[in-house]
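Please check the following for our workbook:

***
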Amino acid sequence: MKSTWKPHEKHGGLSDKDKRELPETVFAFPGKRKEPMTDASHVRNAVARFDQVQGVTDADRDLAFENILAAAKHYGVDVAETNWRQLGKLPHTPNPAH
């Protein structure tokens, strides 16, 4: 699967209004507009919260993980995992994907 993520000029904290105005290409889950990644901190947050995202399919997760990897590379964030199924082995919330 090919990443759809593209960098965007908006960085730092995002208000609800800011999030609504962002293009889908900055989200880990673009169709659901979940987990915006506009800087390194947001990328780390998307990785940390990956297993908490609900209402998405395995195909959505495949795309989101590719998007995270693309954003991580752009912002210089190290991601040790090579597959989204490696994320959240000890999840804080129940996730039927595990």
Summary: Strands lie at 27-29, 34-36. The chain has three helices and two strands. The longest helix spans residues 58-75.
